[in-house]
Amino acid sequence: MYLRPLLVACFAAGSLSVWAGNVQVQVNGPGGKPLADAVVFLDSPAAKAQARQTVGAEVAQANRQFVPLVSVVTVGSQVLFPNQDTVRHHVYSFSPAKTFELKLYSGKPSNPVLFDKPGVVILGCNIHDNMAAWVLVVETPYFGKTDANGRLTLNAVPAGSYQLRSWHSSFAVGAPVQEQGLQVSNTESSVAITLAGARP
Asked: Which among 49, 77, 133, 190 could disulfide-bond with 123, CB atoms 3.0 to 4.6 Å apart, if both were Cys?
């Protein structure tokens, strides 16, 4: 009785895997030096429809620094800001994509912060001016950060046309993400990016 729906479901899942490929990305700065912690993501109408909330995202304060320095979450995700220091912090952002304030606190705030708009969010601490971090909010499940060698692999990306967008924390404040078209096939694709706006 349930054989036909099961076969259809299995066929659909198999079709998705057959028509998806991996995208190998190399990101360099203007001088050709590999860029670590560059954010790369693939946008399309279909990708936006497949995006789900990022679960378990945290930006901690440890040794009077934000950890991690750069985070990527999808629109609608909630982020916790636990304070692991013995001093209190006052975390805030005035960015258009998210304005919020967590006034002087220790330990873990009772509520996470909802990031409900796409864009770059710059974090600061009102007590320690040297503290800064970034949260990039995207509308796609296909995103990641480069490693120390400027490399990143986006796995199981469905074949199709995308806008490949990339960003680095050294961009000038308010600078747009860099973008280019990308056609993804059902085999492995490779792309090299030079981020002209990245600063040493």
From this structure: 133
pTM, two decimals, is 0.88
- Give me the CATH number covering residue 177: 2.60.40.420
User: Does residue 5 have a cis peptide bond before it, meaning omega lies within 30 degrees of 0?
Assistant: no
For the chain, 200 residues long, give each residue's pLDDT as a single digit of tens: 433 433 333 334 444 445 889 999 999 999 999 999 999 999 999 999 999 999 999 999 999 999 999 999 999 999 999 999 999 999 999 999 999 999 999 999 889 999 999 999 999 999 999 999 999 999 999 999 999 999 999 999 999 999 999 999 999 999 999 999 999 998 899 999 999 999 87
How many other CB atoms are there within 10 angstroms of residue 128's CB atom?
15
Name the domain count of the chain. Answer: 1
Is residue 199 one of the residues assigned to a domain? no
H/E run at residue 122: strand 119-125
For the chain, how far is it from start to end, CA to CA, in angstroms? 64
